[in-house]
Write a structure and sequence with these properties.
GMP Synthetase, Chain A, domain 3; Rossmann fold; nine-stranded mixed sheet; alpha/beta
Length: 510
């Protein structure tokens, strides 16, 4: 302290809420967020953040390092809850509303959440679900508004350390068991600055469209970035291609982030609609979650220009790892670009040596954006982190110029519509069917979704099982997006001598 002026607590350590508070101090009345007819100025946003913080600490008696959970589609309230919890050190598990009640129950119990925030549709779905540690459920409707209005803004924020946990998104492991990814404040804040440098669409003058689900790491960080830097974010909770292109023009959007499914839908619109809604302000388009088909890349360039598209590769555990810039989109095919700012990558062979150019190996990355580890999963954490180097099991190669190419997924992960899906989880459900002797699931290319799931089945007495029957059996056991879209009945699942399924053989059969 000097001259009796104390630094604000949020300036003593890196804080996302602190960045937003700083933006508010510069321009309190500026509009920060809009979702449909719902709007927030920076002053309103920080006031509601502070009331949520106070409600969690003084009303619900949570303490820093406690866990809570949220199950909801995108909304302004979603961001307020995340920020209000974060500035008092409460880590929020962000759970997809597309999961089944059983899956949601498992995650909430695993993360030991004490409070659950849930939107109206999910509240109905979870009406009869019992949770082991949750003592309070708050519906994101009038109930949330009453709770916020009854709470006063918090007056004394605790110190939140940079390495404390910000959010806990969940990702499935190779066994199909969900794993909580411990994302620290430091990793996401430093990534925000990297994004501002790399994409050039985050400043007080920029206007960003947030359409990706906030329950996933990328959707969350790309929604927070605009308001962290004092800009504006337009939020959408449903994918409507025509509404998206209308908003791009009407709201003078300068940047937006999407997955291949979004771009497939947008480019499927009639040319007259695309031309009518062609935005003059759009400077940056960012694609992530699955490989963007070259034909769609070329269409994006044709419609929106050759200086806007970025294709980014990353993971929940490692943040953004690489980016293919606009100038390289048509020059480097099936490429995910060069390392993100402050990121090191290496491709390693089975002997532990770095691969020469164009040789395939396992990809490792090291950066300030890495996670702290998996919640209560020391073995899996040790497998993922090796002396500061992270692997999520992807196979890759680099060309002579150092550009990165993802060749395959070591763990056979499937990405459908921007959602990570692990086939083993679906296989475990299929094995519960009384007529299925053996099963294997793979991802198959799909122009709209990036990938969809295909099930190879061996049945008792060659019983016929079609896709509709399989989906009916899976109902309630797994999310709809995880259900196989095609089925193939075969005599035997190919396996090696150790009993491991030969999925490369199945891909050839497909």
């Amino acid at each position: 302290m000097k001259g009796n002026i104390m630094l604000p607590p949020t300036f003593q350590h890196l804080s996302i809420a602190g960045g937003i508070r700083a933006a508010m101090s510069r321009n309190p009345s500026k509009q920060a967020l809009k979702h449909g007819k719902n709007k927030r100025s920076y002053k309103q946003l920080t006031d509601r953040m502070d009331r949520i913080s106070n409600g969690l600490i003084h009303d619900l008696k949570l303490t820093p390092k406690d866990h809570a959970a949220i199950i909801s589609s995108n909304s302004i309230e979603y961001m307020e809850i995340i920020l209000g919890a974060s500035q008092v050190g409460i880590a929020m598990a962000t759970i997809s509303p597309k999961l089944s009640p059983i899956e949601i129950q498992l995650i909430c119990n695993d993360v030991e959440a004490k409070v659950l925030f849930v939107d109206e549709s999910s509240a109905e779905l979870l009406r009869d679900v019992h949770f082991e540690t949750i003592t309070t459920v708050i519906a994101i409707n009038n109930e949330l508004e009453e709770w916020i209005n009854q709470s006063k803004p918090i007056s004394d924020l605790p110190i939140v350390q940079e390495w404390d946990v910000f959010t806990i998104p969940y990702t499935s492991g190779t066994t199909g068991k969900p794993k909580g990814v411990l994302v620290p404040y430091r990793s996401r804040i430093l990534q925000l600055f990297g994004m501002a440098v790399e994409y050039g669409c985050y400043s007080p003058d920029d206007r960003f469209l947030a359409i990706a689900p906030m329950c996933h790491g990328a959707g969350m960080i790309f929604a927070l970035a605009p308001i962290f830097f004092g800009g504006y974010a337009e939020i959408m909770d449903q994918f409507d291609p025509e509404e998206i292109v209308t908003v791009l023009k009407k709201e003078h959007i300068t940047g937006f982030f999407g997955v291949p499914t979004h771009f497939h839908g947008i480019l499927s619109l009639e040319n007259a609609i695309l031309e009518k809604n062609k935005p003059g302000s759009l400077e940056t388009i960012i694609s992530n979650a699955a490989a963007l088909p070259q034909a769609i890349k070329e269409e994006i360039v044709k419609v929106y220009g050759d200086d806007v598209l970025h294709e980014t590769y990353g993971s929940t555990e490692g943040g953004i790892i690489s980016n293919l810039r606009p100038a390289d989109q048509l020059r480097k095919l099936q490429c995910v670009g060069q390392p993100f700012p402050c990121t090191y990558i290496k491709v390693v062979n089975t002997s532990g040596e770095e691969c020469p150019p164009n040789e395939v190996g396992e990809l490792f990355s090291s950066s300030p954006y890495l996670f702290n580890g998996y919640w209560k999963r020391p073995k899996e954490t040790e497998e993922a982190l090796d002396q500061g180097w992270l692997t999520v099991g992807d196979l890759a190669k680099r060309d002579d110029e150092g550009y990165l190419y993802i060749v395959d997924r070591k763990k056979d992960m499937v990405i459908s519509g921007g959602i990570n899906i692990y086939p083993r989880e679906i296989e475990e459900v299929l094995f519960q069917h009384p007529d299925i002797i053996d099963a294997a699931v793979i991802g198959v290319p799909d122009e709209k979704w990036g990938e969809t799931l295909k099930a190879f089945l061996v049945t008792k007495d060659n019983v016929e099982l079609n896709t509709d029957a399989l989906k009916q059996f899976c109902e309630g056991k797994i999310a709809k997006i995880k259900m196989p879209q095609t089925v193939s009945l075969i005599d035997a699942i190919p396996r090696n001598a150790g009993g491991k399924v030969l999925k490369t053989t199945l891909r050839k059969l497909n």
